[in-house]
Design brief:
elongated; 2 domains; seven-stranded mixed sheet; 15 helices; single chain; five-stranded parallel sheet; FAD/NAD(P)-binding domain; alpha/beta
């Protein structure tokens, strides 16, 4: 690469970073992705993970632009669009088969494999922890210095922060940090649920399931290997709940009793929902012996947050507009952002040729416009997400959620829990 060639770095190999990298690769624009994690093995990517509902105008649009539509379909079909809502006792308040929505779902691991397998090995540098980001101006433009500690420092003309909630690149652009939402999340998995626990498989159905009450929630999504991903959401003002409660450091099976006996947690939930949680905790520990429970506080960035534009650095995905998962918008925005950013980059690249200074000058107004439209777009999605969270974890989240589906579907199919 000549010294005048624009040097582009993408920080983070999540959906946003991988999508942008693949789009640049398909148009022969040089780039490097830097990722903190070590390269995942195929065995690791085959494990069940959270399902992503990709939307036509965002996630699927990016998949099409990447030329992966046919391959993408091979990874779908493990989670239906069907939705069931119950109260805290397991009484079904709403059930549908997803007749009005045919949006395909793909697991997070499968999406990572789909995107990364299409990139050249040299395009991603795994195991690179970004320690610091700094900038300096020259006569020809603005340069960004990335400090990777033992891997050394490197200089780039454009750095895109796709490095998530606690983005190092974001620190270069703004002092605003994510804030705690008041909700803790515990993640567990039941593999082969249909054969091992057919009554629980029947309870949650073949799509998504939510049991809500007391401002808490037990939610499930079907996934690979006939699995069910079980999420336990606990509302608490204590950001350090995992430590103060003594849950941190224990196994999932080890925290089961506390979760199910404490009336401030799930102690007052019905027996069938408690059984679902108990089985999920036991199965998680059986699959991952000795592993500590996956509990974390949920964070979000201020709705509509923006930053002062800088010529040579920008943000996409969670680094730009972190929000909770209540509207299914996070992954979709994380794939739409790079699609629109790519269009600005390729326009500047084709106009400036291989001259870095000219590339920066041409890209600058395009980048500013991209950021303004991204902030406006994500603000509306964040408002929707926040509103959904208020509904789900309000005084009567189950009824509110069922009524929401009633307004959409025009009916509620109710039945009683079997326990």
């Amino acid at each position: 690469m000549s010294s005048s060639q624009p040097r582009i770095a993408i920080i983070g190999a999540g959906p946003a970073g991988l999508t942008l990298g693949l789009l640049l690769h398909r148009h022969a624009i040089p780039f490097t992705i830097f990722e903190l994690r070590q390269k995942p093995t195929d065995q690791e990517l085959a494990k069940p993970s959270g399902m992503l509902d990709l939307h036509e105008e965002s996630g699927l649009a990016a998949i099409r632009e990447c030329g992966l539509s046919e391959k993408f379909l091979e990874f779908t079909g493990e989670c239906a669009e069907a939705q069931k809502v119950s109260d805290m006792h397991g009484n079904i308040l709403h059930a549908d088969e997803g007749e009005l929505s045919k949006r395909p779902e793909i697991s997070r691991h499968a999406l990572t494999k789909l995107l990364s397998d299409s990139l050249p090995d040299e395009g991603i540098r795994w195991g690179h922890k970004l320690l610091n980001v700094a900038s300096y101006s020259t006569e020809t433009g603005n340069n960004i210095i990335l400090d990777f500690g033992p891997h050394g420092k490197q200089v780039f003309d454009l750095v895109i922060g796709a490095d998530g909630a606690w983005s190092r690149v974001r620190n270069l652009l703004t002092d605003v940090k994510p804030h705690y939402t008041g909700i803790q999340s515990i993640t567990t998995t039941i593999r082969h649920i249909t054969s091992k626990y057919p009554h629980l498989a029947t309870l949650i159905g073949h799509g998504s399931f939510a049991a809500l009450g007391l401002r808490h929630g037990v939610m499930a999504q079907r996934g690979p290997q006939d699995s069910a991903r079980i999420y336990i959401f606990l509302t608490t003002a204590d950001e350090n709940f995992s430590i103060s409660s003594g849950i941190a450091g224990q196994t999932a099976a080890g925290v089961k009793s506390r979760l199910l006996s404490d009336d401030t947690l799930l102690g007052r939930f019905g027996s069938i929902i408690k059984e679902l949680v108990g089985v999920a905790c036991d199965e998680e520990s059986a699959d991952n012996p000795g592993a500590t429970v996956d509990i974390k506080p949920l964070y979000m960035l201020p709705i509509g947050d923006s930053w002062e534009h800088r010529t040579s650095a920008t943000l996409i995905g969670d680094a730009a507009h972190l929000m909770c998962p209540w509207a299914g918008e996070g992954a979709n925005l994380a794939m739409l952002d790079p699609l629109l950013l790519f269009r600005a980059i390729i326009k500047a690249y084709e106009s400036a040729g291989r001259n870095a200074a000219s590339f920066q000058r041409t890209l600058d107004p395009l980048l500013k416009g991209f950021e303004e439209s991204m902030v406006a777009r994500s603000k509306e999605k964040a408002k929707k997400t926040y509103s959904n969270g208020q509904m789900l974890f309000g005084e009567d989240g189950a009824r509110a959620f069922a009524d929401f589906f009633l307004s959409v579907w025009g009916r509620v199919d109710g039945s009683q829990a079997t326990s």
